[in-house]
Specification:
Length: 338
C-alpha cells in the first residue's frame, strides 16, 4: 500500500463487524446492531471520562454543577448509559451489570436474543488520579426463546459469543473477540470512529512481566507465593521479571495482552475466591486471552470452564502468556498431588 492508500483504507469497527457478519449469510445483523450500541456507549463514556478532570475543576463532579444539578458519579452515569443503549438496541433480554445487584430483564417489546454482562466502569476508584479505567463486557446467546430466566446468564465462559473492553486512557482503545481472534481499535476523536490499529493481537508465548498486588503476599497460598518468588529470584539463571501493577484490571490486562507476562488476582486467606467477578471481569478477559493464544486459570481449572451459580460471584484468576500460565498450573498441580 502507498501511505495514501493506507490512510484512505480506514477499517472502522463498523466495517470490520459488517465484514465479519458477511461470513454468516443467514445472519440478520442482530449482533452487528447490538455491537453498534455497545460502541456508542463506549464513545459516550470516553467523552464523559475525559471531561471528568475538567468537571472537577469547575465543580461539576460529585457536587452540584453550575445549573445546580446534582452531577452523577461517572460509574453511575456509565451504567445508565450502557443500560439504556443495550435496552434500546432491541437485541437483549437480560443485562447483568456490576452496578446492579439484580439482573435487568428487558421488557417484552424490546427483547432480543442476547444476554450482556458488563462492568460499565471498572477501576472507577482510579478516576480522580487520572489512571486508565475501562468498560468490560461479555455477550451470551439466550438459551432459547422461553421467558428469560436468570439461568440464561449463569453459563460457563466458554459459551460466550463475544467479549471485550474499552480502555479510557491516553487514547480510547476498544479490544474485542467474537471467537476468531482478537482485534484492537483506537478512537479517532476527529472522526468519532474506532479505527483498526491492532489487527489480530497475539500475546507473546512467554513474558518478562508479572502483575499482582504484592500487598496481599502475607495471605497468599503456597503455589502463588512460589510463583511470585520464582519471578523475583529465578533459580534457572534467567533474569528476574519486572513487576507492573496499575490496579485497574483493563489497563493491566491490556498491557499483558500486548507485552506478554502474567496478571494475577489470586485467592488469599481473607478472600478465598479472590476479588474479581466471574461474569464481567474474569470471563471476558479469559476469553480474550485464549483467543490471543494465552491462557486463563483459576488455580483449579480453566477459567472459561467455570459454571457460575451467582451473578456477582468471584474467582481467583491467573491469566497471560501460554508458557507462564503453564508454570502456574504446574505449581498448583504439584500442590494437589501432595
Ligand atoms: P486491589 C479495581 O477496583 C478492580 O476491580 C480491578 O480493576 C483491579 O484489577 C482490582 O480491583 C485491584 O484490586 O485489591 O489490588 O486494589
Amino acid at each position: 500500500h502507498s501511505a495514501d492508500a493506507q490512510r484512505t483504507d480506514l477499517m472502522t469497527i463498523t466495517r470490520f463487524v459488517l465484514n465479519e457478519q458477511s461470513k454468516y449469510p443467514e445472519s440478520r445483523g442482530d449482533f452487528t446492531i447490538l455491537l453498534s450500541h455497545i460502541v456508542l456507549g463506549c464513545k459516550f463514556v470516553c467523552s464523559a471520562v475525559n471531561k471528568a478532570g475538567l468537571a472537577k475543576l469547575i465543580g461539576l463532579a460529585g457536587e452540584t454543577n453550575v445549573q445546580g444539578e446534582e452531577q452523577k458519579k461517572l460509574d453511575v452515569l456509565s451504567n445508565e448509559v450502557f443500560c439504556k443503549a443495550l435496552i434500546s438496541s432491541g437485541r437483549t433480554s437480560i443485562l447483568v451489570s456490576e452496578e446492579d445487584e439484580d439482573a435487568i430483564f428487558v421488557q417484552p417489546s424490546l427483547r432480543g436474543k442476547y444476554c450482556v454482562v458488563f462492568d460499565p466502569l471498572d477501576g472507577s476508584s482510579n478516576i480522580d488520579c487520572g489512571v486508565s479505567i475501562g468498560t468490560i463486557f461479555g455477550i451470551y446467546m439466550m438459551n432459547d426463546n422461553h421467558e428469560p430466566i436468570i439461568e440464561d446468564v449463569l453459563q460457563p465462559g466458554k459459551n460466550m459469543l463475544a467479549a471485550g473492553y474499552c480502555m479510557y486512557g491516553s487514547s480510547c482503545t476498544f479490544v474485542i473477540t467474537t471467537g476468531s481472534g482478537v482485534n484492537g481499535f483506537t478512537l479517532d476523536p476527529s472522526l468519532g470512529e474506532f479505527i483498526l490499529t491492532h489487527p489480530d493481537i497475539k500475546i507473546p508465548k512467554k513474558g518478562k512481566i508479572y502483575s499482582v498486588n504484592e500487598g496481599n503476599a502475607k495471605n497468599w497460598d503456597g503455589p502463588t507465593a512460589s510463583y511470585v518468588e520464582k519471578c523475583k529470584f529465578p533459580t534457572d539463571g534467567s533474569p528476574a521479571k519486572s513487576l507492573r501493577y496499575i490496579g485497574s484490571m483493563v489497563a493491566d490486562v491490556h498491557r499483558t495482552l500486548l507485552y506478554g507476562g502474567t496478571f494475577l488476582y489470586p485467592a488469599d486467606k481473607k478472600s478465598p475466591n479472590g476479588k474479581l467477578r466471574v461474569l464481567y471481569e474474569v470471563f471476558p478477559m479469559s476469553f480474550l486471552m485464549e483467543q490471543a493464544g494465552g491462557q486463563a486459570f483459576t488455580g483449579k481449572e480453566r477459567a472459561l470452564d467455570l459454571v457460575p451459580t451467582k451473578l456477582h460471584e468471584r474467582s481467583p484468576i491467573f491469566l497471560g502468556s501460554y508458557d507462564d500460565i503453564e508454570e502456574i498450573k504446574a505449581l498448583y498441580a504439584a500442590e494437589e498431588g501432595k
